[in-house]
Amino acid sequence: MELIASKTAMYLFAFFAVGMVLANAFFRIEKFGVILGKNWSQKIKLATLIWWMATFLYQVFETNQILNSRFTIDSVAIWSYLTQTDLGKSYLISLIFIFVSLIFNFRKTSSSYLALGAMMIALLSPIFQSHSSGLGNHGAAIGFLIFHVGAIVIWVGALIGWRQLDEAEKDLALPRLSILLLWVAITVVITGAVNSLIRLGFSNDWLTKYGFIVIAKVLLTFSLIILAYRNRRNLIDRKVNAIRYLVTIEIALLAVITFLGSWLSNIKPPNTASKIQVADPALSIVGINMPKTPTLNRVFWAYQADGVILGILIFAVALYVRGVLTLSRRGDKWPVSRTIFFAVGVSLVDFATSGGIGVYANFAFSFHMMAHMIIGMIAPIAIVLGSPITLALRTLPIGRIKDERGIRGIFIVFLHSPFAKIISNPVIALAIFDGSLFVLYFTNLFGDLMGAHVGHLFMNLHFLLAGILFFQVIIGTDPLPITVPHILKIVILFAAMSIHAFFSIGILSATTQLDGGYFQRLNRPWWTDYLADQKLGGSIGWALSEIPILLALIAVFVQWVKSDRNETRRIDRASERAAAMGEDDELARYNKYLARLSMQDNQIIEQSKEGKKPRKTGRSS
What pTM did the predictor assign? Predict the structure, then answer.
């Protein structure tokens, strides 16, 4: 019971620290990025420090339980637990990121965002080692659990943070709080239902102790939804006192749900042992059973949800659709072609991570390379052509008062930040896009990442973000901090093509397995020549990399032609305006300037022939 109580306390202190930072970043009034009013820095850092201590105390209880001993602080045993076990390593990451969040300046909104990100990493990293990782559908179970816990943390934190605001700030923050709670409530319900079905299915497991606790969580969650709906009605009617009362009840119910969640995390789902015994041996490494021999039909129809990637894609689509609807209500039009491009890009990412390609990518290098090319080179082109940055700039909310940046203003500041300028440099983007391939595949890093669930997730996210960055710089229509000449874009594309070819040749020439024996440990019954499969992957990488580069080259040429055509039209319009006003246009003024220079040069030549000292002409532009 001490373990459950200490974990509950850890989460409650985390809720308070996260809620304070969340309110500091999104609810409080700021001007030009500086938060006005009382300085919350000491209060936030105190809450964060207590959270760190509660997390460390939970590790002490966890270590004592493993050693089956009474409460004692054995530094050697605790350090061994934190550095030698998977769960301990995840909590070591939590302790590090909680400590990192203490260094930020909470008077600035940008620092509050970074601290909030560090805190969320600290909270969510241990979830990758939860009991769900031992069952089938690991990617779906862990992924949806991450979004479930993250949404609950934001829900509780937002309510706690709102309660800390001044009266004027509370009224101003209510609309943002309402929208935020709507999103997280939907997330909690959907992810909770999916997780329950993954763990218990449609069986008698619901009648076990584990099932009864899940049912209690479900009932409390529906009670919260009803309270959230009442609060939304009170917000419309501006009944602030009623909102405060219901928010207090919400916080109490969420605290009970947190206790039940902590209880569940210390109980294995029913029939776990039997499920693991009858499962495929590859389940312990990959998290899903070994698929049958790949055929076109199986690759096309197979599906094993990667919960994290799928959740990110759903969230991105929801934001994109909301942006398009916002423009539509405003009376503005958004090109249908851009929406189609974005939808195609998202679908390709889903197919390469959760679809057939993604399923077999866990078991064969050739399919892994196919998924890599789709995620990193083909899907990003479609996503970039969907112009998500432009859509965000046109629909993100502005500041609530004068001189407040708002979410849109903060996004603009980020786009013009030194960091954005550095990574949008085409040479840097190329280095991230292509240079990382050699670091990943020709070192031990590839085998290490493939053997860990979080490592596989990291690779997919890196491929996707690096591809989006590169093609955004090369063919993107969204605004960027720097303007890249079209000729330089073409040079960069040819360089990327050459680097990819050299990379593929390196894989084809390899005489040992680049994965450190990862695929061989899976003991797959099909395609047992692992080196031949690796060479096939190199060939696929070479072939598939040529197609998107060629498409990007065509896109750059088309954009270059359009740019020249637009520039010609601009000059023509300027000439027409100048002619209508009886003035010289830009071209005429430039020609007169050249004629004046030519006349001055002729005078100098004539004076030189006559033996006279040329006089100074004082050219100026």
Answer: 0.80
